[in-house]
Amino acid sequence: MNSPEHSDAGHRRSRIDLQDMIDSERSEGEPMHLPLFPLNVVLFPGMMLPLHVFEPRYREMISHCIETKSPFGVVLIRKGKEVGGFAIPQDIGTTARIVKTKREKDGRMNIIAIGARRFKINELDYSRPYLSAHVSEHPIVDEQNQTTAALGERLRPKLLEYAELLSTVHDTKMQLSRIPQEPKMLAYMLAIALQVSNEEKQQLLEAESVAQLLRAENKILNREMLLTRYMLETQSELNAMSSGPTGYIFSN
Q1: How confident is the model at residue 235 (pLDDT cuts 50, 70, 90)?
Q2: pTM
Q3: How would you label 229-239 residue by residue, b for 16+ Cβ within 10 Å and e otherwise?
Q4: ∠ at Cα 61 (118, 82), nearest 5°?
């Protein structure tokens, strides 16, 4: 995957449509047929996904989605590779809406898609050059109660602190857009920001409710911030030990 350049207008449009894309979930169990893009990435609702599309089968798939203004599904690869034969995907994925495209002269495409809604694979379809599936919408349970509100209040400052720690580690400013007040949107932002394995991110994506997702993220944040602080402290101590008057300590 490569990150293509995109205009401010396209970015603004994706932000405007984002809430509608996530909130307009169908009822659970309503079936649909969806082309799939198995990747080594977990896509969450609200997450921006830049893709460089070069395989002929996926160029065909993306062209179809552009022409019909329809989404495709992003699923984490369980077994197999992104390039080549059909990969075996996880059962839960996220629909992606294309918000910007740029075609190259050789037929390749750079696209930007935005994660919209969760789905569950019911049956894989191998009848096309690209993988597709019969799927059902799999919306997260959004309790919208005092419990999720309290969890959100607890996690907002932790997210800011986590971003500061990551900025220090990588010596670069981690950019966070406005932190949402709504617990569901906050939970998705946290899931996107967490620097953990795809396996752990997939578990977050599969959370049944917003409260369950926020609780899981709280545990992960506590662990990751503890490890990051320890790493920074250890590095600081090592730097102090290795510096003498000339910048180095020489062995006898």
Answers
A1: confident
A2: 0.82
A3: eeeeeeeeeee
A4: 75
pLDDT value at residue 247: 45
Fold of 146-241: Methane Monooxygenase Hydroxylase; Chain G, domain 1 (1.20.58)
* Among candidate residues 107, 101, 104, the one with its CA nearest the CA of residue 57: 107
What angle in degrees, to the nearest 10, is found between the helix axes of 210-241 and 146-170? Answer: 30
Among the CATH numbers 2.40.50.100, 2.30.130.40, 3.40.50.720, 2.60.40.10, which is that of 8-137? Answer: 2.30.130.40
Give the Cβ contact number of residue 42 at 10 Å.
27
Q: What are the angstrom distances between the C-alpha of 184 and each of 34, 37, 59, 145? A: 25, 25, 33, 11
Amino acid at 152: G
Query: What region does 205 belong to: left with phi over 0, alpha with psi -120 to 50, or beta?
Result: alpha
